[in-house]
Amino acid sequence: MDTTIDQNCPKRIGIALSGGGVRGVSHLGVMQAMIDHGIKFSHISGTSAGAIAAAFIAEGYAPKEILQIIKESSLLKLLRPAFGSNGLISILHARHLISKYIPHNSFQDLKIKITVAAVDLGEARQVYFTDGELDMAILASCCLPGIFKPIIINNHMYVDGGILNNFPVEPLIGNCDLIMGSSCNHLPVVKEIKSFGELVDRAAMISVNSNLNTRKILCDIVIEPHGLGGYGIFDTDAAEEIYMIGYEEGLKTINGNQKLKDIIQAQKK
């Protein structure tokens, strides 16, 4: 990949946003830091929580606005499970929350191009949504198997995109001059597991991180806050703390990365 910075040409900058439950709120902090410094994105790719962030940012909401929406609404129901009598519930109850804030419900009407990753459960393959009903694609991408009933789109069953690819960089390749990635699932070394919830959380994160390194090398810049490892994927009360961890890591990346400094300087001219 040619990552030479042409200071006379605006860059097509893409960013991939991982899944990770409530830890995905860190993407908002990362994006706010970038936007505050004049970084503009032409393409955002996301799965699960990353797909939610991608859609709302592409609609034109500032990341700090999205954090406020999350805190004031029940949007976090997309990230936190609740069990019905048969162990599976429908995530479709959250559909109206998306339509409230993105009423046109269209990929094409977003201000920034996005790609939403999901998994076709019946055909056992990765799927990237770039058109169709936006809300259904987001819900499919967030549909944790074993907790939520699969989302049905055109007679296909879809579940969380993170099962096969929790860091969807591929849709950006060939479409962007510079590719960034924001991953919210750094795992610290632990000496003990204190609860069943922690066990399930860690096992899930080990699984989704298994192919992370092969996708990191496809990025020019990777942002991966290490401080998120202590938060569970359903730790909804920590949303603001997680946002600030992402914001600080975004600033750290800007201050320490020459490619970003060059782009920021070029955009000021």
What structural keywords apply?
globular; 9 helices; alpha/beta; 14% strand; Patatin-like phospholipase family protein; Acyl_Trfase/lysoPLipase; hydrolase; eight-stranded mixed β-sheet; lipid metabolism; single chain; 269 residues; 36% helix
Rg, rounded, reads 18 Å
What is the helical fraction, as a range of percent? 25-40%
Helix tally? 9
Indicate the structural class. Answer: alpha/beta
Taking the alpha carbons of the first and last residues, their distance comes to 26 Å
Count the E strands.
Answer: 8
- Roughly what is the average pLDDT, rounded to an integer? 86
Shape: globular
Strand content: 5-15%
Write down the oligomeric state.
single chain
Largest beta-sheet characterization:
8 strands, mixed
Write a structural description:
The structure is a single chain. With 269 residues, the chain is an alpha/beta fold. Strands 1, 2, 3, 4, 5, 6, 7 and 8 form an eight-stranded mixed β-sheet that branches. The protein is 36% helix and 14% strand. It has helices at residues 25-36, 49-59, 63-72, 95-101, 134-142, 196-208, 212-216, 239-256, 258-268, and strands at 13-17, 43-47, 113-120, 125-129, 151-153, 156-160, 178-182, 221-223. The protein is built from nine helices and eight strands.
